[in-house]
Design brief:
Number of helices: 4
CATH class of the domain at 123-305: Mainly Beta
Radius of gyration: 26 Å
Strand content: 35-45%
CATH superfamily of the domain at 123-305: YVTN repeat-like/Quinoprotein amine dehydrogenase
Pfam families: CNH
Protein name: Vam6/Vps39-like protein
Low-confidence stretches: 1-22, 189-217, 399-404
Subcellular location: Cytoplasm
InterPro entries: CNH_dom (IPR001180), Vam6/VPS39/TRAP1 (IPR032914), WD40_repeat_dom_sf (IPR036322)
Shape: globular
Distance between the termini: 30 Å
Structural class: mainly beta
CATH architecture of the domain at 123-305: 7 Propeller
CATH topology of the domain at 123-305: Methylamine Dehydrogenase, Chain H
Helix content: 10-25%
Strand order of the largest sheet: 6-7-8-9-13
Largest sheet: 5 strands, mixed
Keywords: Cytoplasm, Protein transport, Transport
Amino acid sequence: MSLSLLEVDNIESRHGSSNHRLPANDWLRREEKARVLRTLRSLSLHNAYDAIELVKNRPTKIESIASNGSKLHLACVDGSLRIYAPQSAPSSPSDPSSNGSIQRRPYVLEKNLGSFSRKPIVAMEISKSTNLLLSLSETITFHRLPNLELVAAVSKSKGANAYAWDDRRGVLCFGRQKRVGIFRLEVLGSKDFGVFEEGRFGKLCLSVNSLRFRANGWSVEVKEFSIPDMVKSIAWCGENICLGIRREYMILNSPSGVLSEVFPSGRVAPPLVVPLPSGELLLGKDNIGVVVDQNGKLNNDGRICWSEAPASVVIHILYAIARLPRYVEIRSLKAPYPLVQTVALRDVHLLFQSNNCVIAALENSVYGLLAAPLGAQVGLLSQVMRILVIFVYDFRGGCACGQN
């Protein structure tokens, strides 16, 4: 809803007789019109999230982030891994509710692993099904939580620039140069993970398209497929893999290796592939997000129009959340995908979906976008409705102000 003050004046003048005009000294003076206008504009907006600063003044630039329950894992540009936990309140040093979700309180450093990786970790996530930390640096590695012992290192992923992990099936895919690799990691019933170095079998993997071998309680399968260009963005969609390469989107069928084109990517922004809770995909085309099914077929109703071309998008509950240069933009996932909220955080270089919130990492600090309390949202909407009722009655000459 976007009325200007001039349009409000025109609405009054179109009602003809002075009986319908409001007295000059009534509450709906020009400054009051401005207040009503702001209220009308806010009717379609509400604070779905509160931005809470969790970690501040980090001396080293944050490169990637993951969460495990209430704890945050921050990988820094110097190759270190820092684990943060919520600061305990003096009255309740051991709050059981803090074990499974990100908290609305400052976070403090719990552990610092200064030499976790020789090079910066550009991406990482935690597999809930296997309790492993996946990280992409020189190669893709798996570490067992909570002690972070090395479980597997995928040597064929050396030089990879993007990956996607299917936690339900235990399958990893990654893009390296003009190839896509698929890595399946399965526990064979042993409770002891052991340490497995896939690089021992590297020479064999170079000469065949697919291998399956076993070591120390793990079953591993590796496949490789050639693609036309370097992968910029990648995501699983069932047994298919959606690839955002330099100039277009493609669907790769992982069992057969069949590659099919979807449509060209944008001219300004790099390709962006985002899985949706429905099983569909959101594909970026500059400032437009296009919804397609698992086979790349267009959804006629699926088109999100962002204010600018987003650098990244995450999905959380009912919202699509985009990282823009000047702020974070939040839109509903229900067509026609209206704007819900903008969060004034500049220079966010990473968005991450946690279990109960979205994490926004700036260069040296971390914010949590946590769902606003329901009571606050209901109170805001009630206030808006009261003002609108007063406005409508007064506009029609009923003068609801001061009436009992």
